[in-house]
Amino acid sequence: MSTKITFKNASKQDFLVLVRALVRAYQDFAAYDAAGHRAAGLTSPQADVLFALGNTEGLTFREIGEKTLITKGTLTGVIDRLENKRLVQRVPNPNDKRCTLVQLTRTGTQVFQEHFPRHIAYLKTRFDQLTHSDQRRATRFLHKIKAVF
Amino acid sequence: MSTKITFKNASKQDFLVLVRALVRAYQDFAAYDAAGHRAAGLTSPQADVLFALGNTEGLTFREIGEKTLITKGTLTGVIDRLENKRLVQRVPNPNDKRCTLVQLTRTGTQVFQEHFPRHIAYLKTRFDQLTHSDQRRATRFLHKIKAVF
DNA sequence: CTATTTTAGTACGTATTAGTACTAATGTCA
DNA sequence: TGACATTAGTACTAATACGTACTAAAATAG
């Protein structure tokens, strides 16, 4: 017997406990993640792009967007700022003049090789507090949540 | 025998599977949530504030920030725009002249009473696809994740 | 082969976000 | 009570974020 949702009982729906847990877990992680990047003079999206470009010969805007989940409109500005910092460079693609290849510069490669492992280790200190079993189970439930959207 | 993290093996750390699952689950939820609010002419933060103010006599900026996890600097702008839409109003507090009370206007109350239950039902259609048992277990693991930060 | 559609990236407007600095008001402590 | 710290909110900057519109280039349908 499901009751109709009204403005009085809406906030008592059981699933909202899960919603709040999801939002708070993500936000706390995101804040910790951003703090690690900021120590390297990078924002989270900038670091995400550097990490996507690392160990590649360059990626197009579309490919970077798919890896980082940054939409193309936002990506233009992020790449602009990384280019101003001399960490990446736009390279025209002669085969398909619509596409622009984005590559790490020598400086960008250095920053990647130093900051990337350090940041992964920085995250690992926290996730190591969860057992591998818990990590696997948490991952499974997060996949289930994602699957309903 | 833990291996040192380098820029070559860093991306192969097991816990990154969990990180990606968390980010993707949250982002898909957030996009679905935002779409529901946009149908009512609201942004997510604006709707969060309206929902926080619903069924109250008004809240201070600090209280709204605690409920919605919006920092005070951002909140000023969000409240400004809600005030421009005539959905909330700032009311000076005579007891403590530092505080401003934010209340729903009559229009804001109407929007809350219509949009809030509709939005909760809109979210419920998705979360109903998970069993109650899965919802409880997912919540437990999300609390564990939050606890390490 | 040409008209149409799709794809890639940019430009722009509005809104959010975090952080810092600032003012006014309140609380605290010696 | 008076110096000092704390609290509440605003102002400001830089960077995202998303949607829409736009241009150029490539792919495709007929």
Report what the structure shows.
Chain A contains six helices and three strands. The first copy, chain A, has helices at residues 15-38, 44-53, 61-68, 72-84, 106-127, 132-147; strands at residues 59-60, 88-92, 100-104. A three-stranded antiparallel sheet of chain A has the order 1-3-2. Chains A and B meet through helix 1, helix 5 and helix 6 of A and helix 1, helix 5 and helix 6 of B. Chain A binds a DNA duplex (30 and 30 nucleotides) through helix 2 and helix 4.
Key traits:
homodimer; 149 residues; mainly alpha; Arc Repressor Mutant, subunit A; 3-stranded antiparallel beta sheet; 6 helices; DNA-binding
Major sheet description of chain A:
3 strands, antiparallel
Mean of all residue-level pLDDT scores of chain A: 94
What is the assembly state of the chains in this entry? homodimer
Find the CATH superfamily of chain A. Answer: Winged helix-like DNA-binding domain superfamily/Winged helix DNA-binding domain
CATH class of chain A: Mainly Alpha
Shape of chain A: globular
